[in-house]
Amino acid sequence: MIKNMFSPIKKGISLMRQDRYGEAVEYFLRMLKAGKNLDEAHFNLGRCFFKIGLFKECKEHLLETLKFRLSDDRIRDILEITNWRQLVSNKYFNSSPSFSHDGSKIVYVSSRRDTNNDGKIDSLDCGGVYVCDLSSGEERYIVSDDYYNSHPVFSPDGNSIAYLSSRLITASANIPERMSNPGLYLINVETGEESLLLDNSYRIKNVSFSSDGEKLIFSSWRPGDNFSGIYSLELKTRKFEALVSGMFDSTFPVLSPSGTRVMFSSWRNDTNADGVIDIKDNSAIYIKNLLIGFETLIAPDTFNNSFPAFSRDESKVMYLSVRRDTNSDNKIDSTDNAGIYVYDMEKQHESCVVDDASFNKFAGFTPDGKSIVFISSWRINRPLGIHDEFFENKGIYVINVDGKKIRQIVSDKYYGSRSTVVSPKGDSVVYVSWRRNTSRGIYQAYLRKLPSVAELKAWIEKNIIPAS
To answer: How far apart are the first and last CA of the chain?
Structure first.
């Protein structure tokens, strides 16, 4: 963010914008030698060296920048380069972060070995389940990376973790089949005692705990079923109960905080008129009252609706909805941008909070229900190139539920981001992020404040390192 383009740094900025970084470095070094605009010279040298991959020099000049008075804009400029607090290294392929209910820990999957022997570590490798204490930064290895583990979630009391794990090993392979159905497991965090709750004859997705911790809620294709229903499993008795029948495909179940209602997406009509009802059709969003069994239609399948969420007080629900041919391919489908919509339960009124002018995903309420955190591609609007990663150049934003006062939290300038989860404390967001030539790190950003100089110093030291 350059406030004064008539300052002595104007020429150096112009050189940078023309990708003439070598000349820009020489220009800013001359400014340092002349003792002019030292803070601007150091910062822009740090940015130049970051762009050309000289991370030792980048780090040196960013640390020098911290010795000067920092405006809020300058702090944000530095965060564009450093990203926020790195919880888990980006030399690993990390995924599926989730908070404990008290907001003190996160659980996630991390691939750290080339288990399939293809010369790289990525999503095709097995990943272990880890827990990180956010206060101390200490990490615990919970479930072995001999398996394809995914989507771990804490129980409300933090004593257990439920997760999916693919463990089927065929005669032709030494590691589990990645695309095989996972089993549903539960592990005691302290003792390490693991229990298989449902085997891989079920196809299970979208697992969460009930608010009292006594049940797991998930979508599943039971053995022999053609469609997925919404089910609960009581942990003590292993009682398996259908909450929403598998007459149609229903998925993305979200149990209300009170435990009395479940919200989900369901495909029930042949909206594309191809003669079959499947996930190529639009999905509607329903809420089912579990006490009386009555379903309420929240968002009809006139549009394609997905990823619903309750506010903590259950007064509002949120979802993504695809409603226009935003990529101009003469059809409306999942490749088009979704808007973010909020439905007021009392007023029975829907409002668009974030329009579909750009890509939006991973939306979630803050605990007070007043804001929504999401990723979006608002800074860069360009077709995906052959080397582009789908979530690259997408930042993290927060917006009031009335659609006003949007702020960017995580810059999209040098990093891609995905899998945002808001802390139950409401003070931060955890997310997966990466830059060119790195794998996937896990980071934590503040929602309501900027970092201190001491924090920036630590993050410059830790985050600005060569890609492994």
So the answer is: 30
Q: Of 80, 104, 129, which residue sits at a domain end? A: 80
pLDDT at position 197: 98
Q: Which two tokens stand for residue 123?
A: 């999503």
pLDDT in tens, 182-196: 999 999 999 999 999
Residues 61-82: tens digit of each pLDDT: 999 999 999 999 999 999 999 9
Distance of CA 7 to the CA centre of its chain: 39
Q: How many domains does the chain have?
A: 2
Q: Distance (Å, rounded) from C-alpha 87 to C-alpha 138?
A: 9
Q: Is 123 part of any domain?
A: no
Give the sign of the dihedral formed by CA 83, CA 89, CA 95, CA 97: negative
Which residue in this structure is represented by tokens 């995905």? Answer: 418
Q: What is the rounded CA–CA span in Å between residue 406 and residue 397?
A: 7
> Which of 57, 80, 103 is at the close of a domain?
80
pLDDT in tens, 85-98: 999 999 999 999 99
Q: What's residue 132's pLDDT?
A: 99
Residue 298 lies in a domain: no
Residues 6+ apart with CB under 8 A from 387: none
State the amino acid at position 99 in one-letter form. Answer: F
Q: Which domain holds residue 380?
A: 308-450
Q: Whole-angstrom Cα distance, residue 81 to residue 61? A: 12
At 31-55, the pLDDT tens digits run: 999 998 999 999 999 999 999 999 9
* The pLDDT value given to residue 173: 66
pLDDT at 1 over 50: no
User: 462 with 86: CB under 8 angstroms?
Assistant: yes
Range 405-411, long-range pairs (CB < 8 A, 24+ positions): 406/354, 408/378, 409/373, 409/445, 409/446, 409/447, 410/79, 410/83, 410/84, 410/443, 410/445, 411/76, 411/79, 411/80, 411/379
The CATH number of the domain holding residue 322 is 2.120.10.30
